[in-house]
Design brief:
The protein is α/β, with parallel strands linked by helices. It is 46% helix and 18% strand.
Length: 323
């Protein structure tokens, strides 16, 4: 009996030793979540498709390249390509998206020019197992896993409406350069601006025209507005181009300080015009951050990391006092 007990004990010890050795393998452990993360063993290519060729997106690209440089130091090669339509035209942008889906990059970042139209191709790309995110402008009804950008467009427009109303002492004629009529950020800002202005019966909106993110068109629209309304006292621009266009026209007409301008973003010419007092204020987005975090998250998606659904990058008010 004693011998049998000893044999059983030895057998149990051997069994446990083998089982433990099997579980440990080469240092592995059961439930090791690090195994869910994929090792990257090839260069990655990420394609950004903006709404239009525009200097605003040059700053997005700077942020994207900065993130790629950080990954390079970690031994991960990331190639960045920007493929923007020459005009803010949804048909042209959709062709760009289709072509890049066919090319099957490791990551695709899309700025929605017309979310309702863009949604179909975004969903097709995801169905095709591509890593797809939206940036700058979202397509919230699509299946995109992540949006990187600033979505408080209504609030930006509202804040600028309040700022302009105070500048003109809550009375007078103002105009709106409304950008692209399908771009959700432009539409949201215009809505916010109009809601702020509606509080003041002494202010009337005498023109509201789309410039399609075209600086020269913004100049021409402002020139026409100044000729038709000699007593115009304010202009709101809802994108990065049109405050510059409005300012060029106002400056050329000798109406600096008489026609107050508020708008979006912080392009170098915008900041110079603020310094000169031609533009009174802008709400500037942090588009460098948009590019930077878009690349960070696309790498994370390739590695099978978890990601948030939205990464807000924010905006800030800039006046002459800030420069």
């Amino acid at each position: 009996m004693r011998k049998l007990s000893k044999v059983i004990t030895i057998f149990v010890m051997v069994f446990l030793s083998v089982a433990l050795s099997f579980a440990q393998g080469s240092g592995d452990k059961l439930g090791d979540q690090s195994k869910l993360i994929k090792t990257l063993n090839k260069p990655l290519t990420f394609v950004f498709i903006p709404k239009v060729i525009h200097p605003w997106y040059d700053v997005v690209k700077e942020g994207a390249l900065a993130a790629a440089e950080e990954f390079k130091k970690m031994g991960i090669t990331v190639n960045i390509k920007f493929d923007a339509p020459t005009n803010a035209d949804i048909s042209e942008q959709m062709k760009k998206i289709e072509a890049n889906i066919s090319a099957r990059p490791d990551g695709l970042a899309i700025a929605a020019l017309d979310p309702a139209t863009n949604t179909r191709l975004i969903n097709d790309a995801i169905k095709a197992k591509l890593n797809v995110i939206t940036f700058d402008t979202d397509a919230p009804n699509s299946n995109r896993p992540l949006y990187v950008g600033h979505s408080k467009d209504f609030q930006d427009g509202y804040d600028l409406g309040e700022y302009l109303a105070k500048l003109i002492n809550y009375k007078g004629k103002v105009g709106i350069l409304s950008g692209s009529l399908t771009a959700p950020n432009h539409v949201g800002r215009v809505k916010g601006f109009k809601e702020a202005i509606a509080k003041y019966p002494g202010i009337s909106i005498v023109f509201d025209r789309p410039d399609n993110d075209d600086l020269q068109k913004a100049v021409e629209l402002t020139e026409n507005a100044l000729q038709a309304n000699s007593d115009l006292v304010g202009i709101f621009g809802c994108n990065a181009s049109n405050p510059i266009g409005a300012a060029r026209a106002v400056k050329a007409a000798g109406k600096t300080g008489k026609v107050h301008i508020v708008g979006m973003d912080d392009l170098p010419e915008t900041l110079q015009l603020i310094k000169e007092g031609v533009i009174d204020a802008t709400k500037a987005q942090r588009q460098w951050e948009i590019g930077y975090w878009a690349v960070k998250y696309l790498v994370a998606m390739n590695q099978n990391h978890t990601i948030p659904a939205v990464h807000e990058t924010g905006s800030r008010l800039i006046t002459k006092n800030d420069l």
